[in-house]
Fold this sequence. Notes:
By secondary structure, the protein is of the alpha+beta class. Helix content is 19%, strand content 30%. It contains 10 helices and 34 strands. The strands form 7 sheets. Strands 23, 24, 25, 26, 28, 29, 31 and 34 form an 8-stranded antiparallel β-sheet that branches. Strands 5-4-3-2-1-7-6 form a 7-stranded parallel β-sheet, with helices on both faces. The structure holds ligand FHN. Residues 64-65, 210, 266, 282, 289 line the site of ligand FHN.
Amino acid sequence: MKRSLILILLSFCFLVKLAAQKETLGGHDERMQWWRDARFGMFIHWGLYAVPAGTWNGQTDYGEWIRTSARIPLDTYDQFVSRFNPVNFNADEWVKAARDAGMKYIVITSKHHDGFCMFDTKQTDFCIMKTPFHRDPLKELADACRKYGLKFCLYYSIMDWHHPDYLPRREWEKDRAIDDAEYDKYVAYMKAELKELLTRYGEIGVLWFDGEWEPTWNQARGLDLYNYVRSLQPSIIINNRVGAGRLDMEGLTKKGMFGGDFGTPEQQIPATGLPGTDWETCMTMNDHWGYNSQDKNFKSLKEIIRMLSDIASKGGNYLLNVGPTAEGIFPKESTERLRGIGRWMELNSEAVYGTKASPISSTPWGRCTMKTTKNGFRLYLHVFDWPANGKLTIDGCLNKVSKAFVLSDIKHPSLNTTRKNDAISIALPKTAPDTVNSVIVLEFKGEPDFTDPPEILSDFSSLVDSVTVTLASSRPNVEIRFQVSDSIKPVDSGIIYKGPLNIYRECTVNARCFRDGKPVSGTSSRHYAAKIPFFARAVSGLKPGLSYRYFEGEWDKMPNFKKLQQWYFGVVDTITLAPKKRNENFAMYFFGYIKVPKRELYKFTLASDDGSKLFLDDMQVIDNDGLHSLQEKSFERGLNEGYHPIRVEYLQRTGSAELQLYIESPGMPKTLVNKQMLFHE
Ligand code: FHN
């Protein structure tokens, strides 16, 4: 056993090395270049699930997961094959709609989780060629993409609810035998299909894997599949869902895990740019990926246009989804939005295509993208909120403005700019050229010279007695100056920062970077609140550990425990899921007292996968509820020495289950709440 484990490990390291060796950084950048420049693509979820269109047995909130969410038996679902006949499908129309919206690539589902193949495969009869339609829409789309200059890309689900060799089965499919299922055979089937897709449809821009989260898939299989696909089309780009290291819907790759060529945040946009990381946010226009005839909750055109700017300003791509009907047409609401985006892109696409993340950290009026030019660079200021005073200011820039103008005004008449230290102000026209997003261009010569405001760092954001604050800047040869005041104020002179500050009262720390006595950045500010400690409880006769209650059921949010029948109860030394009787569909809560050693500020951090809540002194202080991967939330409170009531609630739906509660205070490093601290009556 040990020998085989070592062999697997060695082969995995060899494969990783091989993958890395196969491509130099320059080769990687060259392969990624079109994708990085594109910034905007169309996702299309289209398959058999468009036939029921989200409705089953009177329930209307299904999507592309309908077969398993509605527990439709295989032979019932297979009947959709004879009903799928998208006679109105027109590949040219779809591709032109994407092109006219300013999209540079299309990613379409070749096979979703239901296993139905939207292309002419010889590997199974569960495919489009067995429907009355009897055409290969992917072939037609590939040809149309080449005709109109878009990259044709494919989504392919590793998870397959139809193939007899795929495991695991759905937990409700007790009737489907698994004895003869051989997962390696399923992988061979997948590779055979991918070979068809990668050798019969011309150049494929991106292979967008999905459905990689079940335990039968792993890093070694993912790397093998990545190398296999690249062996068929070396220039293809592959997302991180080929591996097994994705951080759930956050979509980025866990440190040290193989992450393909880009990260895939889903239905969310990272809070900041991610320097050195390629990533693409995929998002629905309404609430479903696959067509749902009842779902009219479409995002507004304003939201979509601003999201495109937000994503580009952070250096990401936007993959916006359309779920076509079973007749082969886009929902009218999707078409309306695509046309609206197209109108905006027609005048402003230069501020999106080929741009990089903003060099400016603070843009309260909108977003900023940047592009290198022949002898300098351009900033594109995406102004959402047009300043009433007609003046737009950016901080932290020492470059001299060559020209400023409104991008959509084709004559590009110059706008006046003035400078005060690092701040550049632009005199704007009275009326915004676009009520949703007006782009102002600042043109510069030379290399960008921007300085972000200093970071104001501390372990805590509040204090009982004191808090230690450090100031930092990544910029070379700058001097940090600061002042402590009751509110946010620009630092025009300030005190030179020499080292950590001890703050003893509620205040706001303001800081700014200087060079040769002149400000070179904007001012950063951070408020520190003074906390009055909560009184401890006068209790006695407590015993070590916390009491717990355990319940079973399927909840998407924390249940009202008062209304549940109690399943099990007992005492635990620390906050642990050990008492659980199964790995999915359960909830627990722990209650008792936490004993703190001294009057101080305490910071509690509650981490869980799925939901959790923390109550202190009988008040809810952290709400980390919901179905999500491991995520944490923190809360700070002043506590007097002694016993304080504590309660932790936990909810597990499916997948991994984790719960941790940490405590820290000035002088006490972050540590798991442990049995020396916990008591119950
Ligand atoms: O389960 C799929 C879902 O149906 C859809 O395809 C999205 C699109 O990224 N991916 C999975 C959910 O993360």
